[in-house]
Amino acid sequence: MAHPSLSFTPQAIDPRTWCCRSTAHAEALFALVQAVVDRSKPAAVVMPNPFYQIYEGAAILAGAQPIYLNTTAATNYLPDLDSVSPEVWNRCQVLFCVRRPIPPVGHVARLLKARLALADRYDFVIASDECYSEIYLHEARPPWVYWNSTAQPVAIVLNAVWCS
């Protein structure tokens, strides 16, 4: 977790303090949900659909309601954050995000800003599953986790990122 005002470039990440090893991708995703969800109040975990099964299982076993955001041609295969009611956002404790191979140009920055604004407003953790971060078009411009489409660094706020 980083301070809300913290902004950095990839070179500033110290793997001794910013990285945590796990036995596998799924176990880390599962453990985050178990650690974050507060069972003392109604909880929701919001995830794109289709989704990685561990998101749903982790939510259910943490006592949270899985909320599915269908990604269809009608939504340009992106989750429609505006379709989620304020009541659900108030219960949201984790928002799963998935980087698909070659995300549509321009959508990454807009979705990132929307996710960060929602996390700030409703106080939930963004779990960014960067499972396809190694797949990109231009060798000279590799993507960086949670950077916008213009390659400008952004602040990391209440955020966990997984890379394969």
What separation lies between the terminal Cα atoms? Answer: 19 Å
Count of runs of 4 or more consecutive helical residues: 5
> Count of DSSP E strands?
5
Query: Quick one: biggest sheet?
Result: 5 strands, parallel
Helical content class: 25-40%
CATH class: Alpha Beta
What order do the SSEs take from the amino end to the carboxyl end, as H and E?
HHEHEHEHEE
CATH topology, anyone?
Aspartate Aminotransferase, domain 2
Overall number of structural domains = 1
**Which shape, going by the Cα principal axes?**
globular
Q: Biggest sheet, strands in spatial order?
A: 2-1-3-4-5
Instruction: Please report which band the strand proportion falls in: under 5%, 5-15%, 15-25%, 25-35%, 35-45% or over 45%.
Output: 15-25%
Q: Radius of gyration, Cα only, in angstroms?
A: 15 Å
CATH homologous superfamily title: Type I PLP-dependent aspartate aminotransferase-like (Major domain)
Annotated CATH architecture: 3-Layer(aba) Sandwich
Mean pLDDT equals: 74
Secondary structural class:
alpha/beta
User: pLDDT below 50 for ≥5 consecutive residues: which ranges?
Assistant: 1-10, 101-106, 145-158
